[in-house]
Design brief:
Largest interface: A-B, 39 and 45 residues
CATH class of chain B: Alpha Beta
CATH class of the largest domain in chain A: Alpha Beta
Number of helices of chain B: 11
Radius of gyration of chain A: 24 Å
CATH superfamily of the largest domain in chain A: Thiamin diphosphate (ThDP)-binding fold, Pyr/PP domains
Number of helices of chain A: 14
Number of domains of chain B: 1
CATH architecture of chain B: 3-Layer(aba) Sandwich
Radius of gyration of chain B: 19 Å
Helix content of chain A: 25-40%
Largest sheet of chain B: 6 strands, parallel
Order of helices and strands of chain B: HHEHHEHEHEEEHEHEHHH
Number of strands of chain B: 8
Number of domains of chain A: 3
Strand content of chain B: 5-15%
Shape of chain A: globular
Largest sheet of chain A: 7 strands, mixed
Structural class of chain B: alpha/beta
Strand order of the largest sheet of chain B: 2-1-3-4-8-7
Structural class of chain A: alpha/beta
CATH topology of the largest domain in chain A: Rossmann fold
CATH superfamily of chain B: Thiamin diphosphate (ThDP)-binding fold, Pyr/PP domains
Shape of chain B: globular
Distance between the termini of chain B: 44 Å
Oligomer: heterodimer
Strand order of the largest sheet of chain A: 11-10-12-13-15-14-20
C-alpha cells in the first residue's frame, strides 16, 4: 500500500511553499515521528514528520524546489520494500483536486500572480520596504507591536527590520494592545512617529479608546497645539477560516471618526504610495491591510512616490455601470467585470477607493454621471458601511443621473462562521457582484 | 531635601493660594452659568501639585486627568487663559474647544487634561518613552486618580514602563473617593502604590496634605527616575473638599470627615510655617493674598470679556 505525503499548509492562507531540505532518501525506512523534510514559506519554516511506518518509495521534489502547491504529494511511502524500483520512473500520481479549504480569495491571488511578470513584488514586501525606507529617512519613525522584531512579524511583514534598525526602533511588545497603543500615542504627542502594528485589526478593539479618544481628538481638544503623527497598521478583514473573532472588517468603524484618516491598499504599488503618505502625514492614519493580499504580487516602483489621500483610482474604465470598491474586493470586482463583458457585453467601470476617509466623492459622482448605474462592493457588514456613505453621496450629488436603485454588495449580516462552506456564503463572491450589476441593468 | 529659600516658601504659598482662589472663582462662575459641562475642582489637594512643582525641571513633561486646573497653574500656564478655556472663549488654551477637562500647552510641556479615566497613564508612559528615545534626560510626571488604579490599562502601562525602564514618575493622587465610591469599596487590598510591586516598581505613601512632605518625596523620586533607574510610584494621600464635580453634593461622606481634613488645611500649614520661620510677616502674607485675589479676579474678567470662538472654528484643528 502506498501513502502520499502531501505538502502541508502552515497557515490558514498558505497556498504554496518551498522544500528546503530532505532528511530521508528513497529506499530509507521511516517510522512515525521521523522528520522527513523541511518546508518553508515566506512566513514560517516547519519540519514534516512521517505519520506511518514504511519505506520511502519516491521523493517527488528535490531540495530547493520552490512554489509547491499545498496538498500536492511530495513523497510516497510504501509498506513494502520491493515496490520502490518498479515505480521509480513514474511521475506524480494524480494530483488531488483542490482542497475545499482553499477559498476563492486565495485563487484570486494565485491567478493574479500568474498573470504578472518577473519584476513584481508582493504586497508584504512592498509594505516592508516602505517602512524600511521611511525609517532610514527619519529616525523619529519606529515600529512596535506583537512579534514585530525577533519573530520577524506574525505575517512576516517586518522581516529583517530588527536586523537593520536594532531593538531601539523595532520593538516587541507584550500582548497589551491598550497599553502599547496608548504609549505610542503619547510618543506621537511628544514628537516621534510610531508605526503601531496590530497583529490583526481585530485586536485593535482592545485599544480603540486610545485610537479614538486620544489619537483622533487631541488636536481638536488642544486647539491645534498637539498633533498625533502615527500609523496604525495590520491585516484587516477575513483571512481564511479563522472564524468570528478574527475575521472582522473595520473600515467603516474607523472611517466614522473625524480626526482619523483611513486607507486600504489593494495592490503592491498603491500599498507603497499610500503607506508613504501615511507615515509622512501629521495626523493619525489607519492603514488597513489584507492578509490574503500579502502574497499577491504586483507592479513595483523604486521611485519615491506618494499617493495623496482622498484620491480614488479608476482601476478599469467603463461606460455601463460603476462599481465602487476597495481592498481585496477590487480583485473580485475586476473578475466580475470580465465576466460581465464576456457574457453580457456590459462595460463596467471599477473604482478602487484606496482612501476611505477622506473619500473621493468627485471621482464616484463623475463616474455615475457617465454610467448612470452603481454598485458598491466591500467585505464589511452591510449596516452603516462605507458603501452606505457612497450611496448617500450619490443620491445627493447625482440623483437625476441614476437609472436604477443602487445596490450594495456586502458580507452577510452575521458573525463570520468557521465552516468553509458557510464562510464562502458569508463573503461577497464574484457571482454576487455579477448579479448585482445585472440587476441594476435590469437583466 | 534641599533647603527652601525665602522665595521658595513664598512661591509655594502663592501657588497654593492661587489654585484655591482660582477654583473658588471657577465655582462661582459655574454657578452663574459662565462655565458649563463637567468641572472638577482641586480645592484641598493643592499641596500635591505644588509640592511636585518645586522639584520639576523646565523640560520635564506632565500629563494628568480631568481634574487639571491646579496642574496647569502649577505648570506655569496663565490663569486668565485657563479661565478663558473654562468659559469656552477663544483666548482659552484650546480656543474653547477643550473646556475644563482638556487643556494642553506644548510650550510648557503640559500634555493634558484627559477625560477618560486611566487613559493618560499609557500616554504619559509614551511621553517618557520619547524622553528616553531622544536621550534628553527629562522625565514625565504622570498623575493618576485613585479611581484609575482599578483600570486595566494602568497596569499595562506599569508593565511597559518597568520592562523598558522608562523615565516616568507616577503620582497617584489618592483623594479617598473615585467619584462617590470610597477607595476601600473599589480597590481590593491596601496601599495602591503596592500595585507596582508586581512589576518591580518601587513606591511609597506620602502625606499629601503637607506640602513639605510632598516636596521631600517628589525630589527623591524625581532623582531616582532621572538617574535612569526606571519608573517610581508616589501614592499621595490627599482630600478633595468639594464633590467629584459641580453637580455632586458629596452625600457619601460625613461632615465630620470633611471638617477633620479642613482643620489641617494644607495652605494653613504653609502659612504657619512661614510665620514660624519668620520668612514673611502676617502683613506681607496679607498683601500677597490681596494680590492673588486681584490676579484671579482680573483673570475671570479677562475670560468673560474674551470672545466666543467664530463659527469657522468649528471646522478647524480636526486635521493638521
Amino acid at each position: 500500500m502506498n501513502i502520499e505525503i502531501l505538502m502541508p499548509a502552515l497557515s490558514p492562507t498558505m497556498t504554496e511553499g518551498n522544500l528546503t531540505k530532505w532528511f530521508v532518501s528513497e529506499g530509507q525506512k521511516v517510522k512515525p515521528g521521523d522528520v522527513i523534510a523541511e518546508i518553508e514559506t515566506d512566513k514560517a519554516t516547519m519540519e514534516v514528520e512521517a505519520v506511518d511506518e514504511g519505506f520511502i518509495k519516491k521523493l517527488f521534489y528535490k531540495e530547493g524546489d520552490n512554489n509547491i502547491p499545498v496538498n500536492k504529494p511530495i513523497a510516497l511511502i510504501s509498506d513494502q520494500i520491493g515496490e520502490k524500483i518498479k515505480e521509480k520512473n513514474k511521475t506524480i500520481i494524480g494530483t488531488k483536486s483542490k482542497d475545499k479549504k482553499e477559498l476563492e480569495q486565495t485563487e484570486v491571488s494565485e491567478k493574479e500572480n500568474s498573470k504578472l511578470g518577473q519584476d513584481q513584488i508582493t504586497m508584504r514586501q512592498a509594505i516592508r520596504d516602505t517602512i524600511a525606507e521611511e525609517m532610514r529617512k527619519d529616525r523619529k519613525v519606529f515600529i512596535l507591536g506583537e512579534e514585530v522584531a525577533e519573530y520577524q512579524g506574525a505575517y512576516k511583514v517586518t522581516q529583517g527590520l530588527l536586523e537593520e534598525f536594532g531593538e531601539k526602533r523595532v520593538i516587541d511588545t507584550p500582548i497589551s494592545e491598550q497599553g502599547f497603543t496608548g504609549l505610542a500615542v503619547g510618543a506621537a504627542f511628544k514628537g516621534l512617529i510610531p508605526i503601531v502594528e496590530f497583529m490583526t485589526f481585530n485586536f485593535s478593539m482592545q485599544a480603540i479608546d486610545q485610537i479614538i479618544n486620544s489619537a483622533a481628538k487631541t488636536l481638536y481638544m488642544s486647539g491645534g497645539q498637539i498633533n498625533c503623527p502615527i500609523v496604525f497598521r495590520g491585516p484587516n478583514g477575513a483571512a481564511a477560516q479563522v472564524a468570528a473573532q478574527h475575521s472582522q472588517d473595520f473600515s467603516s468603524w474607523y472611517s466614522h471618526v473625524p480626526g482619523l484618516k483611513v486607507v486600504a491598499p489593494s495592490t503592491s504599488l498603491n500599498a507603497k504610495g499610500l503607506l508613504r503618505s501615511a507615515i509622512r502625514d501629521p495626523n493619525p492614519v489607519i492603514f488597513l491591510e489584507n492578509e490574503i493580499l500579502y502574497g499577491l504580487k504586483g507592479e513595483n516602483s523604486s521611485e519615491d512616490f506618494t499617493i495623496p489621500f482622498g484620491k480614488a483610482n479608476i482601476a478599469k474604465e467603463g461606460s455601463d455601470t460603476t462599481i465602487v470598491t476597495y481592498s481585496i474586493m477590487l480583485h473580485k470586482s475586476l473578475q466580475a467585470a470580465e465576466i460581465l463583458k464576456n457574457e453580457y457585453n456590459l462595460n463596467v467601470e471599477v473604482i478602487d477607493l484606496q482612501s476611505l476617509r477622506p473619500l473621493d466623492s468627485e471621482t464616484i459622482v463623475n463616474s455615475v454621471k457617465k454610467t448612470n448605474r452603481i454598485v458598491t462592493v466591500e467585505e464589511s457588514w452591510p449596516f452603516a458601511s462605507v458603501g452606505s456613505e457612497v450611496v448617500n453621496i450619490v443620491q445627493k450629488e447625482a440623483f437625476d443621473y441614476l437609472d436604477a436603485p443602487i445596490i450594495k454588495v456586502n458580507s452577510a449580516d452575521v458573525p463570520m462562521p468557521y465552516s468553509s462552506e458557510l464562510e464562502k456564503l458569508y463573503l461577497p463572491q464574484i457571482d454576487d457582484i455579477v448579479n448585482a450589476v445585472k440587476e441594476v441593468n435590469y437583466i | 531635601m534641599k533647603k527652601l529659600t525665602k522665595s521658595d516658601h513664598l512661591k509655594i504659598y502663592s501657588y497654593m493660594l492661587k489654585i484655591r482662589r482660582f477654583e473658588e472663582r471657577s465655582s462661582q462662575l459655574y454657578g452663574m452659568g459662565h462655565i458649563g459641562g463637567f468641572c472638577h475642582l482641586y480645592i484641598g489637594q493643592e499641596a500635591v501639585v505644588v509640592g511636585v512643582l518645586m522639584t520639576i525641571k523646565k523640560n520635564d513633561s506632565v500629563v494628568t486627568t480631568y481634574r487639571d486646573h491646579g496642574h496647569m497653574i502649577a505648570r506655569g500656564l496663565e490663569p486668565k487663559k485657563i479661565m478663558s478655556e473654562l468659559t469656552g472663549r477663544v483666548d482659552g488654551y484650546s480656543s474653547g474647544k477643550g473646556g475644563s477637562m482638556h487643556m494642553f500647552s506644548k510650550k510648557n510641556n503640559f500634555y493634558g487634561g484627559h477625560g477618560i479615566v486611566g487613559a493618560q497613564v499609557p500616554i504619559g508612559t509614551g511621553i517618557a518613552f520619547t524622553h528616553k528615545y531622544n536621550g534628553d534626560k527629562n522625565i514625565c510626571r504622570t498623575y493618576i486618580g485613585d479611581g484609575a488604579m482599578n483600570n486595566g490599562q494602568v497596569f499595562e502601562a506599569f508593565n511597559l514602563a518597568a520592562l523598558w525602564n522608562l523615565p516616568v514618575l507616577y503620582i497617584i493622587e489618592n483623594n479617598k473617593y473615585g467619584m462617590g465610591t470610597a477607595v476601600d469599596r473599589a480597590a481590593a487590598g491596601s496601599d495602591l502604590y503596592k500595585r507596582g510591586e508586581a512589576f518591580g516598581i518601587k513606591g511609597e505613601i506620602v502625606n499629601g496634605m503637607n506640602v513639605y512632605s510632598v516636596i521631600k518625596a517628589a525630589e527623591k523620586a524625581g532623582e531616582y527616575v532621572r538617574s535612569g533607574k526606571g519608573p517610581y510610584i508616589l501614592e499621595v494621600q490627599t482630600y478633595r473638599y468639594r464633590g467629584h464635580s459641580m453637580s455632586d453634593p458629596a452625600k457619601y461622606r460625613t461632615k465630620t470627615e470633611l471638617e477633620q481634613y479642613k482643620s489641617s488645611d494644607p495652605i494653613a500649614i504653609v502659612k504657619e510655617e512661614i510665620i514660624k520661620k519668620k520668612v514673611a510677616s502676617k502683613n506681607e502674607l496679607e498683601k500677597l493674598d490681596k494680590e492673588i485675589i486681584e490676579e484671579i479676579k482680573s483673570a475671570a474678567n479677562f475670560a468673560l470679556e474674551s470672545q466666543f470662538p467664530n463659527k469657522e472654528e468649528l471646522y478647524t484643528d480636526v486635521y493638521l
